[in-house]
Amino acid sequence: MTIQLNERLKENVLKLCNDIAGSRQITAVCVYGPWVCGYADKKTNVNVLLILDRFTLRLNTYSETVDDVKVSVLTVNRLDFERDVNKGWLGEFFAEKLAVPYEPLKNGEYLRLHEVKIKKRTVSELLENLILEFPESSHEFLIKKEYFMYEVMMRRARVFPPLTYSFLNMSRGNLGRKNVEAIMEGYLKALKELEKENIVFHSDGYIKITRSHIDAVKRRKLRLPLFLKSIQRLVLPPLLSVFSESASSFIQDQRLFMKANKKVRAGGLVSRLEDPKKYVLLPTPLGPISLSDKSGIEDVARKIIPDGEFSKMNVKNIGGVLNDVYLLTITKNGEEQKFVVKQFIDWSNLKWLSLTLWSFGTTSFSVLGRSRLEKEYAINTFLHSKGFPVPKIFYISHQKRLIFEEFIEGEELVETIKRIISSNKTETDVALVRAVGRKIAEVHSLGVSLGDCKPENFIVSKDDIVLLDLEQATRDGNQAWDIAEFLYYSGHYSPPLSSTNAASIIARNFIEGYLEAGGKKETVKKAASARYTKVFSVFTPPHVLLAISNICQKMGKELAKSES
């Protein structure tokens, strides 16, 4: 049976705080823990936070029995408390008392003000973490407001597991809704302030991060990651818990949890906490998908078909050098629907080493499967929103590292390149190369670089030239690399002793298309430099490489003269 604070007990607790304060001024008093959250029993201490102005001991604990109940008073100097709120001065050991339900006994206005301050700083740091962890997908994130509360709980519990009992106790049964509402009130006020500062905005019931804030975070110089900073703060509570009264609160939370959950083992309790990833979602045609989604290929196939029924499903491995790529064919009522399914695996050390040596000092590649998955999704979604021909994304499963895309019928552009190289070209082939140059310039005008711009990554469909494999694309990458890779990689199809005429035709038409669509001359000129030619010298004939480089350099100069 749980018990709650009554008015008499509150009055006597406040009287005890006055006795402890003596001649010192009390800034604020509140009760926190089991008695406020609703799961205390008669053996449970009443936990009190007492903030004193000019408290020379800075922090201390006191224990007294009041109305047959043991009262534990955690006392802190006002300036130290405010530093803990503003900068984690004491590992947020005191500030975190306002991050969970509490009941003010004196100066509630002061406590609520600092509750919003600590929650605002926490939200800001968690947003920054999301941006640093998902630099591209963060533009698309649909965040439920509860994410911040559950993420804080999860991180604190992982660093200091005894806190898990407290979080599980306050979340159980009918108590959970009441306590969540109490906690979220401060977060909602913090989010309103951040919205006024143009850090977040609301969209269809979700929270989104503004583009200006994402750009600002990405521009900042490298510093101690915020996750490490949170760990740095959180290692202090275990040290402070040497105060017997503080440590006893963790023991009591464990006793109360085990009392209510007799058949539950103590090990692995952190996994019983609400998964915060459930509250960060990405939009897809099938609806928002959370980062916690673990759907496999068959699961998604049943979601793609509206009524969940199909007569036949076939999954065929269609290769993929650095990813596992499958063709998913679903047959329903005699009609086939085809999808490309990619599973983004972490590249092995050998693959990573070969790519790094190949491009060392010129560009960098994302090697983690999760990073490549988020780029593929985010840049594809962004370009699609701008009207670019890219495969439609139907579903994304972050936990399985799967992405489901529209299957595009057509011919790879590399076949066009090969025909030009072999002198079997048509006017249409040359026009296609020019069109690709225009297409890339249009992508660059949005601040996007493709990252992997080989001819193999373009499909000539019946309607347009479609951009594929955007897993290395970024909003602020190396655009000169796109030009260099397309041209020099195209040149590697030239036989060792062949003429440079075909490669020159490709280079001239590509660059003309690029410049016609507003591509920058500086980007073309950069592609001519040794920084890029050296990368492709291992497999493109040297005379072809030189011819392409000279054309890039010459056409850049010609443009410069015409503009002067």
Strands in their spatial order, largest beta sheet: 3-4-2-1-5
Give the beta-strand count: 18
CATH topology call of the largest domain? Beta Polymerase, domain 2
Q: What is the CATH C level class of the largest domain, in words?
A: Alpha Beta
What is the number of domains? 3
Second-tier CATH architecture of the largest domain: 2-Layer Sandwich
Mean pLDDT score: 86
CATH superfamily placement of the largest domain: Beta Polymerase, domain 2
User: Which regions have little confidence, pLDDT < 50, spanning 5+ residues?
Assistant: 349-361
Largest sheet descriptor:
5 strands, mixed
Q: In percent terms, what proportion of residues is strand?
A: 15-25%
**Range of helix content:** 40-55%
Radius of gyration: 31 Å
Anisotropy-based shape:
elongated
Number of helical regions? 21
Task: Briefly summarize what is shown.
The chain has 21 helices and 18 strands.
List the SSEs and their pairings:
Layout: H1 7-21, E1 26-32, H2 34-37, E2 46-52, E3 59-66, E4 69-77, H3 78-87, E5 102-106, H4 108-133, E6 142-143, H5 147-159, H6 163-171, H7 175-196, E7 200-203, E8 206-209, H8 211-219, H9 226-234, H10 236-240, H11 244-260, E9 280-282, E10 289-290, H12 297-304, E11 312-317, E12 324-332, E13 335-343, H13 349-359, H14 369-385, E14 393-397, E15 402-406, E16 411-412, H15 413-421, H16 427-445, E17 458-460, E18 465-467, H17 479-491, H18 501-516, H19 521-527, H20 530-536, H21 542-563
Parallel strand pairs: 2-4
Antiparallel strand pairs: 1-2, 1-5, 3-4, 6-9, 7-8, 9-10, 11-12, 12-13, 13-15, 14-15, 16-17, 17-18
Helix pairs in contact: 4-7, 6-11, 15-16, 16-18, 17-18, 17-19, 18-21, 19-21
